[in-house]
């Protein structure tokens, strides 16, 4: 039931899902390990892309268009979030050079 | 041949992903992410998502990544500290991430795949089928995303004022 007929061959949905899981965890590792805020934002975009892949895979496996609509919404939200996140970063970079994300800790209690 | 395309695109995507987190210069991370997005768009096309394939290239790789490149161009290469707050932060992170991957893999084993409802796959994922869903059933989320984009644009304009401007 998880196999799809694509271009004459049988592809299994679980392959795509495992690829999505691997990309998601690579992005999560990047968020945890890297110190530069810009690179952390890039790794968050990687995680969002992995989730979009999962949505499209299930849309194709269930032959239901709603997964692709959800992925389009997710792309829109990701674009808006990238815009605002980068605007905040640019604001911070105008004032000082951030080398380590832990320097941005003025809001801590 | 579809299987070959899948494995080539998947290998490119994973290589790009590892490149995103490994390169020390942010410009190389951004370009690796562009490679990932192009590989994923090939996979979307393989999965009968023609419109999402085009939107991924135009919007994601073509606009969002260009935004990142502009920020890097404005502020130059970043210096990243080599030391971290916690000792062994890298090893702990890899451990947690492998545990997360194992958890997701275990979840994937237990999926009950449903039988797909019979659909005409030749028109699946075309602009028309997306438009039918987007403008009838999902009109409300569509309008909300347009408001979201307006708010994001206003926010970006406001946040990028020079200090000292009041208007």
Give the key terms.
heterodimer, A: 109 residues, mainly alpha, Helix Hairpins, two-stranded antiparallel sheet, 3 helices, 2 strands, 7% strand, elongated, B: 167 residues, Four Helix Bundle (Hemerythrin (Met), subunit A)
SS-based class of chain B: mainly alpha
CATH homologous superfamily (4th level) name of the largest domain in chain B: NADH-ubiquinone/plastoquinone oxidoreductase chain 6, subunit NuoJ
Low-confidence stretches of chain A: none
Number of helices of chain A: 3
Oligomer designation: heterodimer
- Classified by CATH, the class of chain A is Mainly Alpha
Tell me which CATH architecture of chain A applies here: Orthogonal Bundle
Helix content of chain B: over 70%
Overall geometry of chain B comes to globular
What is the CATH T-level topology of chain A? Helix Hairpins
Give the overall average pLDDT of chain A.
91
**Which architecture of the largest domain in chain B per CATH?**
Up-down Bundle
Beta-strand residue fraction of chain A: 5-15%
Spatial gap, N to C terminus of chain A: 52 Å
Q: In this structure, how is the largest beta sheet of chain B organized?
A: none
